[in-house]
Amino acid sequence: MGRSKKQKSSKKKKRQPATSGNQKELSVLMEQALAAHQAGNLPVAVKLYQQILQGDPGNVNALHLLGCLTHQTGNHTASIQYLQKAIALYPQAHASHYVLGSAYQALGRRGEAAVSYEKALRLKPDYIEALNNLGVLHKESRNWEAAEQYFLKILQLRPDYADGRHNLGLLFFTRGNNEAAIVHSREALRLNPNHVEALVNLANALKNQGEMDDAIQHYRKVLSLAPNHPSAHSNLLFAMNYHPSIEPEEVYDEHRRWATKMTLTSEAPPPAFENDPNPERRLRIGYVSPDFRQHPVAFFIVDLLAKHNRDRFEIFCYSNVANPDAVTEKLKGLVGQWRNIHGVSDREVIRTICGDQIDILIDLAGHTADNRLSLFVEKPAPVQVTYLAYPNTTGLRSINYRITDAWCDPPGKTEHLNSEELIRLPHSFFCFHPPENAPEIGPLPSLKKGFVTFGSFNNIAKISTEVLELWAKIMDAAPNSRLLMQSGGLNDISVRRRIETFLADHGVSEERLEMLGPTPFVEHLALHHSVDIALDSFPWCGHTTTCNTLWMGVPVVTLSGKNCIGRMGTSILSNLDLQELIAETPHEYVEKVVSLTGDPDTMQRLRAELRERVKNSNLTNVQGFANGLEDAFRCVWRRWCDGRGAANPVVFPSEIS
Hints:
single chain, 4 domains, 28 helices, disordered N terminus, alpha/beta, Rossmann fold, 9% strand
């Protein structure tokens, strides 16, 4: 009985309120915690808040502030636990509901985030930040109209709220309305000239309109304000690739600057791999991509995933897809192991990759949107490779190889432009998956119309004034010719006017032009029925568009460039034994196109045979391509097992200013 009473007494004592002396001590601790928190000394603030909770577990303020702080430092799971306790004690705290929603949102738990924001708004209907984040949630879920209504409501309540104006601009950018995105981004910057994300959105929209000088200028301003911005430097690299006046060596140097910055911010210890160094065993291959969805990368990777030799290779996919779709589900069914890494921190993903004991880790994004190159900085796998989406170097020394071919990267010509060692596959660096439900090839349109129609289906960002100038020369040499352009960017009136004005100044009247915005894919393919000859862009030439255009029976004339970005058309046409469509100089580019316009027999012959030529080429030899790539994987794995794979033979400059 005495033991039982003692236990009862102890429990009762724990529930007693703090004494006045303890209250004073806790008050001092709270002042110290708040001071540390405000000064940015977060580890000290965490310890002090936790000390307060040891003395007073029901301290709502400490629970709320600790929830805010752990969310701020990226520990969203802990943040949720603290905030849930705070809300249980004081459900009327609109700020706790808001931060809880932010923590859920950071973890990708959109439904729970929306519920928390709505609770905050019931308590405080004019809670601008909650309205803003709800709008962002709807944007991320592609509920465009709902997102727009939230952002417009914010601007009614607070016309000077720069974040709301920026998010409205970002919404328009996401929907492909670059013109509106620019207007709202500029207004956000008028309200806050140093609004970094508005600067990024403005630069992205300018890039999509083909305004590379302005885009590059704004990316550089972002980096002056936020040197470690997660996407601005990659976007700058992307934009530089489009610019005809920037030499590949300068682009390479900027990649190395980015890589140096990434390496300096890395806190990873030197890797110690425990992978079995048996050169002939079954290998674990990991593919990392944000584009395992309706996207050209999935279009090119699907057959490879289907054809991998499962006796020799175990395949893992690390999917950074924000909005999975039917293509995502299809790809899931083709691989042994699927890991969703969207919204998961680098540290957690690296632990997963190491736990999976990946032998060769392959980046499928490069510097494209939503890449996870930061994972590769930490080198979670013995051999690392970049491939497919970004036809240039990553700049990272921690990535050992880049996959290419001898036409994209002729031996001895481009090694100095790559931080990776080049793996040249025997034929093409990719395998083309012909579009399903493609229309039949139509007759040569010039035979019926009496004039030649040139076509361009490339991203409008690739259509610089230098490109338009050459096209104007071609059209001047073919007086009755027309030009049909189709691109998502041509939705913008300002872009169409820029092109019309430039070409008019170079002698091409508006009635000779037809410019179309995005269309459903089958309709896009059907537009090729109206085109006799396709004109490739430069210095970044077409790839997916070129393959689809050739599949539709339309010859493509390309201008061969100085690096892989400018030589993909050369690779495609060389694999089809169509070297006569490859120009080495701008003058030759014009000559080849003009010569072809005067040769209807050749145009007709090419139209009749191109699809079969593609079908019977190495471009569509799926099994041969898969075998060649797997042989390359085996080769680099043997090198690593021999103790040579970790060394990169490329010599880097000791310092880049």
